[in-house]
Amino acid sequence: MKKILLLPIFGILIFAMLPHNAYAMSYSLSSTSCATLGGSWNSSTSTCTIVNLTIHPTDKLIVNSGTTLRIIGVVNNSGIINSTGTINNTGTFINSGTITNSGIINNGDTLENTGTIIDSGTINNLTGTITNSGGSINISGILNNGSILNIKSFGTINITGIITSYKINVFCGSTLADSVSVIGGQINYLSCTIETTP
Questions:
Q1: How far is CA 185 from CA 19, 44, 166, in A?
Q2: Who's near 163: CB < 8 A, 6+ residues apart?
Q3: CA distance 145 to 164
Q4: Binning pLDDT at 50, 70 and 90, where does residue 156 land?
Q5: How confident is the model at residue 14 (pLDDT cuts 50, 70, 90)?
Q6: Rounded to whole angstroms, how far apart are CA atoms 39 and 147?
């Protein structure tokens, strides 16, 4: 009788240890989820201000239209961020996962990408620096680069949309592929012997 009871328990334990494809945590940005993420919520502007946040590989964050994620500290994403709303970054935004944006991303400080960014909306690089190190940025929307965009470590930026540029540094082995002209600005193709950013 004891053996019969142990078999179902053993089966449940094995199932619990198997990997699952579902996201460990999925958040749709709201007053409730903002508090759960350790942020502060402004109900008049539907804005969640985050100081520090880590989005793990199995996590997902959704920024819906009409809501704003405001980053003033460090956000480290190795999971998934889907945004049809607005992301305002005046801190450090590190992406090694996937960001899909059809809304607006305003970068006023540091945006580092080693993962994938898919943009069909608008990215405004206002006064900050975007560095794509070995990652991929695919732009079918608009990139307004009013500051510095670095493409390093065999990174790739594919542009089928519109990019207005102040300065783009394409480091050795990296690729800036555009099927639409880059409007204005300066593009520096750096040889493999140059290690510093101009």
A1: 48, 38, 4
A2: 139, 142, 143, 144, 145, 178, 180, 182, 183
A3: 6
A4: confident
A5: very low
A6: 28
Measure CA of the first residue to CA of the last residue in the chain; give whole Å: 76
Distance CA 184, CA 167 (A): 9
- As a whole number of angstroms, the distance between CA 145 and CA 142 comes to 9
Helix (H) or strand (E) holding 3: helix 2-17
> How many C-beta neighbours within 10 Å does residue 6 have?
10
d(C-alpha 101, C-alpha 113), whole Å: 14
**pTM of the full predicted structure?**
0.80
Closest by Cα among 50, 63, 55 to 100:
63
> Would you state the structure tokens that stand for residue 120, as one six-digit string?
């069909």
DSSP letters along 21-34, please?
Answer: -S-SEEEE-SHHHH
Domain boundaries along the sequence of the chain? 23-189
Window from 36-45, 79-88, 135-144 with minimum mean pLDDT: 135-144
CA distance 87 to 93: 10
Query: Which band of pLDDT confidence, cut at 50, 70 and 90, is reported for residue 121?
Result: very high
Q: CA-CA distance, 53 to 95, in Å (whole number)?
A: 12
- Structure tokens belonging to residue 116: 């994938």
What pLDDT digit, counting tens, does each position of 111-120 carry?
Answer: 999 999 999 9
- Return the residue matching tokens 């240890």: 17
pLDDT for residue 178: 66
